[in-house]
Amino acid sequence: MKKLNVLILVTLIMLVATGCGASKSNPVTKEAMDKIKADGTLTYAMSGQYPPFNFFNEKNELTGFDAEIGQEIAKRMNVKAEPVAIQWDGIIAGLTASKFDMILGSMAITDERLQKVNFSTPYYRSGAQIIVPNDSKISGGADLKGKNVGVVLGTTFETKARELGATVKTYKGDPDAFNDMSNGRLDAVITEKNVGLNAIKMNKAPFKLVGDLLYVEKIGIAIRKDSPELLKAVNDALAKMMEDGTYKTISEKYFGSDIR
Known about the structure:
The chain is α/β, with parallel strands linked by helices. Helices cover 42% and strands 25% of the residues. The strands form two sheets. Strands 1, 5, 6, 7, 8, 9, 10, 11, 12 and 13 form a ten-stranded mixed sheet that branches. The radius of gyration is 23 Å and the shape is globular. The model is unreliable at 1-29 (pLDDT under 50).
């Protein structure tokens, strides 16, 4: 009887060990497309503070170029679009934690980010621009050393400002940086060229763009590495939008031109 009990105990231990080993070697991942189809909703994140790419309108609705691109992608997937605003410096962590399906918020494709997420084919090209007050003598990147420069936290603009030797001040969004520059607390802001042009146009801000673009970036939609079906669906939707003129229509609405 004692031998039988020992045999049963050994068998149970082996079964538990085998089960644990299987769970480690074959982790169960849930493809984002399965959840999107089940919920009937595509959630995509952005800062909400990057006009005209993404911002809150007078009705407190999250809108802009990025938001409308997302709406069109969702439409072609036969699901509802749900843009969400997230602080930029924690946005990739939010994606990898499955708090939303993808990031569609004008994110530059970089080698560092590619280690954590996959990216769609680029949906536009962006340029880093220096914006200064109209009476500024700053004329390019070489003049930023030691100057107070505003950037959004966690962006490639922040990295570049530090490389140029600027005294960097970080913000949650560009509107706050532009406000500080208006009040004399900053010598310059580095952000995307069209964002700078929009701030000048919409707010009649006494700013100007100076120098050449500091660098050019390809902008993509970030998707978790465990979701290849969603990546394919997004790339297919983007390709068709660019083919049938829908992309051009959305782009011209916000920029007056096709920014591909």
